[in-house]
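Weekly sync, protein design subgroup
Attendees: M.S., D.O., the rotation student, P.L. (late)

Item 1: inverse folding check
M.S. brought a backbone from last month's batch and wanted to see whether the design step gives back something sensible before we order anything. D.O. pointed out we never logged the input encoding, so this time it goes straight into the notes. Structure tokens as presented (393 positions):
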């Protein structure tokens, strides 16, 4: 039997044990089935006839005030997903990196530079992510960005709590319900469309004058707060991984072209999304277990991404790893629609960090302190660098 506390402390030794002995196992504390092997996790995420994202008891329905994209199925999912994706294509993301993400990262790095020391997770990666993505969404880099940052962290707490703390869920629900600034932007874009992602969510593939109703927009946007912060978490995980492998860090410093591979490998090695939830549509057999209809499944993509049957030396971080396939962004119909954006922004934040903060390195005494299970964060990244007088380099 596996305790949730074990998974929250460090899930990877537990996953390795389960893949060998019981790749599909019961989590009595949560009333869920934990799936850990690559083949079974992939099956759960792609077999839409047997497994659904619909979760009637999910705390996210209450906290977001409706159904977010992650929990939609069928036509509702297709319609909203296509509207979101309309603003997240490769050409748009490429332009976003040059026109928005890099300047934002340079400004945040410039703000930090004189201090010579900071927690890069809270002081650099998260601000870069929320300011840049909020601009792309159409909310601007100011109060809207900070609201989404707060919401993203509240939603993380709810996701990792699995409904065990009603008070925490109620507090998050109340905070996200106080969304007057957000609804004002939605109301303005409903009347005056622009080129933002939020405007596309309202108007893409709709007849003129017939935007999507709030029920298909506001809960989706609130849940997107997680995606707003996620690039910062991924960048933080990449830096933490490089700090644990000094020789590879030196390679990346010497050749920034390796940053793309480093981000992809970090996503496999220890990406922010550790578990994706599903529910059985019908009674099914998985890993030798008979699982009743309506059962909750915790598909551990973090475990699948370290499956020895798929990856050589899976516990080793390797920026030159040739195999780039992973489930860090999910797969199938519910593959993360923002995957290009998340990876590109994480890579850009790291590149600017190495350019603008000379000799950035772990602060004396820093120790890695990752936390969380369904969503796993790298924890504080206390760093120091040479803050020489004069203009920011």
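Designed sequence read out in the meeting:
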């Amino acid at each position: 039997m596996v305790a949730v506390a074990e998974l929250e402390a460090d899930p990877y030794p537990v996953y390795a044990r389960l893949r060998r002995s019981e790749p599909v196992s019961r989590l009595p504390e949560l009333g869920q089935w934990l799936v850990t092997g690559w083949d079974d996790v992939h099956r759960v995420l792609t077999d839409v006839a047997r497994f659904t994202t619909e979760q009637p008891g999910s705390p996210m329905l209450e906290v977001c005030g409706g159904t977010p994209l992650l929990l939609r199925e069928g036509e509702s999912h297709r319609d909203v997903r296509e509207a979101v994706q309309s603003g997240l294509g490769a050409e748009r993301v490429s332009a976003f990196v040059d026109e928005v993400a890099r300047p934002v990262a340079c400004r945040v790095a410039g703000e930090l530079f004189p201090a010579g020391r900071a927690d890069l997770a809270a002081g650099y990666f998260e601000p870069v992510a929320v300011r840049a993505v909020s601009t792309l969404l159409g909310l601007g880099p100011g109060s809207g960005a900070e609201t989404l940052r707060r919401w993203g962290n509240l939603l993380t707490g709810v996701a990792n709590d699995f409904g065990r703390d009603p008070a925490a869920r109620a507090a998050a629900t109340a905070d996200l319900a106080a969304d007057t600034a957000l609804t004002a932007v939605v109301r303005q874009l409903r009347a005056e469309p622009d080129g933002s992602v939020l405007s596309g969510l309202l108007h893409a593939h709709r007849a003129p004058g017939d935007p999507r109703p709030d029920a298909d927009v506001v809960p989706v946007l609130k849940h997107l707060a997680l995606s707003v912060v996620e690039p910062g978490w991924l960048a933080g995980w990449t830096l933490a991984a490089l700090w644990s492998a000094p020789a590879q860090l030196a390679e990346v410093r010497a050749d920034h072209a390796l940053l793309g591979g480093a981000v992809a490998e970090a996503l496999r090695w220890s990406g922010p999304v550790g578990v994706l939830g599903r529910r059985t549509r019908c009674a099914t057999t998985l890993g030798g277990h008979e699982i009743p209809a309506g059962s909750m499944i915790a598909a551990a993509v973090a475990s699948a991404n370290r499956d020895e049957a798929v990856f050589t030396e899976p516990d080793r971080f390797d920026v030159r790893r040739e195999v780039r396939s992973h489930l860090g962004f999910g797969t199938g119909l519910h593959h993360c629609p923002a995957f290009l954006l998340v990876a590109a922004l994480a890579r850009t934040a790291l590149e600017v960090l190495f350019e603008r903060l000379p000799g950035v390195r772990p602060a004396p005494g820093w120790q890695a302190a990752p936390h969380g299970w369904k969503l796993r964060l790298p924890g504080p990244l206390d760093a120091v660098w040479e803050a020489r007088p004069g203009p920011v380099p």
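Discussion: The chain has one domain: 4-384. Residues 242 and 249 are 5 Å apart (CA to CA).
Action: P.L. to compare against the previous round before Friday.
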